[in-house]
Amino acid sequence: MTNSVLIVSNNAADIKQLDYALRNEAADQYDIESAIKLSEAISYLTSHKVDAILLDLSLPDSQGMNSFHRLSRIVPFTPILILVDESANLSIDKSDSTGIAGYLAKSHSPNYLVAQTVRNVLQHQLKQTMSFIEKTRAEIILNSIGDAVVGTDLAGNIDYLNVAAEQLTQWTRQHAKGRAIADVMPIINAETRKSTRNPVAVVLENDHPSTLQPGAVLVRPDGSELNIEDSTAPVHDSSGSLVGAVMVFHDITATQAMSAKLAYFAKHDFLTNLPNRILLNDRISQAISLANRRHTQLAILFLDLDNFKHINDSLGHGVGDLLLQSVTEKLCSCVRHSDTVSRQGGDEFIILINEDQSGENAALTANKILRVLSNSQNVGEHVLHVTTSIGISIYPNDGENAETLIKNADTAMYQAKERGRNNFQFFKKEMNERAVERQLIESNLRQAIDRKEFVLHYQPKINLRSGVITGAEALLRWPHPVWGNVKPARFIGIAEDSGLIIEIGRWVLREACLQMKSWIENGILILNIAVNISALEFRRLDFATSVADILEDCKLDGKYLQLEITESVLMQDVDLSTDILRELKKMGVKIAVDDFGTGYSSLSYLKKFPIDVLKIDQSFVRDIGALNEDCAIVSAIVAMGNSLNYLVVAEGVEDTTQMNFLKKIRCEEGQGYVIASPMDANKFSFFVEKNQPVV
After folding, report:
1. Residues 392, 301 contacting (CB under 8 angstroms)
2. How large is the angle between the packed helices 501-521 and 431-451, nearest 10 degrees?
3. What one-character DSSP code corresponds to residue 268?
4. Average pLDDT in the 394-402 region?
């Protein structure tokens, strides 16, 4: 390694001697430059770096310590050795000599001593430089980490704080230095609020690492508090003697809050903040233990919102979530503080009624819930109506553990749905048979989709005056390979509740459109084919798009398709229904209001819909001829439909008396068993060819 040395002296002999002494030292290599004036030295140093300076204090343009001070200001970290003449009387004030690296006799020192002195100075400077670098690196690292670092001496007084420690303790290093650790970092227990001994004191006393107990809180000067976690260790010198301690700690306030939040949501529903199944099961178990001790009963209410899927699919999950939160508030208002309302997911809720007496409290609560939910709910910009079906099980009669009680309440809930919804049913043992059958049907429905077991039958519609066949209604049939023909009433409701009706409905629509296209190509002359649309299908956001896609795939003009939708479905959200119907009308699709007369039957709302057909519900047609008000209702519907230029169709026409009455009141079309039963596509084609009038 080559070291650069600058000799500043006006004595040429001294310069030569020093140059010779350094260059002939085999252990080191030197680059040696010289200056005879201070001004020359300053000029050289402004553009060159040197490792050491040998300075004569007697220069032509500067005398004494002035030369040293001027140079040290220019190169404060470069060691300067003063050249002295042993024969001269050197007198330098000690207070003025700070920073001098050493002294060197000008011409009387042996060469080896000159080299050794310079070498020692350079080595010392190198050690200082390395020490400075290490210290700076350590400082940067300590100030870069997120943990706070506090150092103390043997007495427990602070001698170091990194930046993180300054921020967390609200003390600067300058103000904290020399203060006792207990004054800068007072620590208390979170629960007892009593002072806790600082671990630094423990470490200094025992000379072993230590940590704070859980629940330690740092109280800061402004009164704010931090939950902290630490690691404190002793510091020893090179001889192994204890000289202080270092405490490394960090703020765990946010971490503890997050842990508490995660623990909370592990047992609560994130949307409604209600207890989830885990917490509910725990509370049911506790309630069962209490009921056993007190010889009382308890009840489980299993709730499922009616038609919630329609709202969720049509208005979006955001509105659905708001509705669930609104329902949660209403359910909580219907129970006592000792009861538990729980959300199980989706639109299912379970309520635990404690200390029930033979189901009395359960029945009262169920009635209250039905009454409260029957009122409309303002959800965002929407006014929504939602009801619920409730199943009830009682401990110990209907089960001796949470799982059985919930399962039986769920079974009773499905019974409530089958009885028209918006009611409650107590569990009965025979319901289990129905639940097993329901599960079996749902499982077989899924297989039926995969195995393509469904078929369509077609029931003709005729013009009642001319007898001309005008169209067909596509009706779903399920010829099960083992059970035989399964009646729609047995599986349609299950398909709707399970959501399978979506896939089934799209298959029906596509199959009907393909059949209509085939009839057109084969000269079977009918005006349209009608397909029933369930509420779940109609409320999907992509319903109109899916209809358009099916028409395009089947290459069928929309004018040949008639969609039948019940008025109750249309009335769930009038504005949304209107938008969907308008999209369908743009395709040329005909719109029929099915089962008309059984729902709202509001003329003011009916006029808002772009509809083409009113289908009179068969319940009114069935009793035509008897002395009852159904004849008047049918007459009124036909008159209203004709006045609004709607095509009126009577369904369920079963005898000539009914047909003659419908002709008399100018009902245009009819369908029913008196005309023809539903039949497969081939029989329908033959029926049309046989019954078309001869032109």
Report:
1. yes
2. 40
3. B
4. 92
Question: In terms of Cα–Cα distance, which of 311, 300, 391 is closest to 347?
Answer: 311
Q: Burial of 239 by CB count in 10 Å (0-12 exposed, 13-18 middle, 19+ buried)?
A: exposed
Which one-letter amino acid corresponds to residue 497? D
Q: Distance from CA of residue 315 to its chain's centroid? A: 20
Report which of 9, 11, 8, 109 is spatially closest to residue 50, judged by C-alpha positions: 8
Is the C-alpha dihedral spanning 304, 307, 313, 316 positive or negative? Answer: negative
pTM: 0.49
Across 268-284, average pLDDT? 92
Cβ neighbours around 87 below 10 Å, total: 9
Residue 544: what are its φ and ψ, rounded to 5°?
Answer: -60, -40
SS3 375: coil
SS3 441: helix
Q: What share of the chain is helix, strand, coil (3-state, %, to 5)?
A: 45, 25, 30
User: Taking Cα atoms as reference points, which of 322, 153, 329 lies closest to residue 246?
Assistant: 153
Smallest CA-to-CA distance from 311 within 302, 301, 300, 324 is with 324
What's the one-letter identity of residue 188? I
Q: H or E stretch including 128? A: helix 111-144
Helix residue ranges per DSSP H, 145-224: 163-169, 173-176, 181-184, 199-206
What DSSP designation does 207 have?
S
- What's at 189, amino acid-wise? N
3-class SS of residue 20: helix
Q: What is the amino acid identity at position 176?
A: A
Q: What is the pLDDT of residues 61-110, one digit of tens each?
A: 998 899 999 998 999 888 999 998 765 444 555 445 567 888 887 765 66
Contact 425, 646 (CB under 8 A): no
Q: CA-based Rg of the chain, rounded to a whole angstrom?
A: 48
Residues paired with residue 300 on neighbouring β-strands, in sequence order? 352, 393
What is the spatial distance between Cα 350 and Cα 273, in angstroms, rounded to a whole number? 14
Torsion from C-alpha of 684, 685, 687, 688, nearest 10 degrees: 120
- Determine the residue type at 541: L
Q: What is the mean pLDDT of the chain?
A: 87
Sign of CA dihedral 142, 143, 149, 152: positive
Residue-wise pLDDT tens digits, 493-520: 889 888 899 999 999 999 999 999 999 9
- Given this model, what pLDDT does residue 94 score? 46
Q: Are 556 and 517 in contact (CB under 8 A)?
A: yes
Note the pLDDT of residue 131. Answer: 67
Q: Which residue has the tokens 């007697």?
A: 58
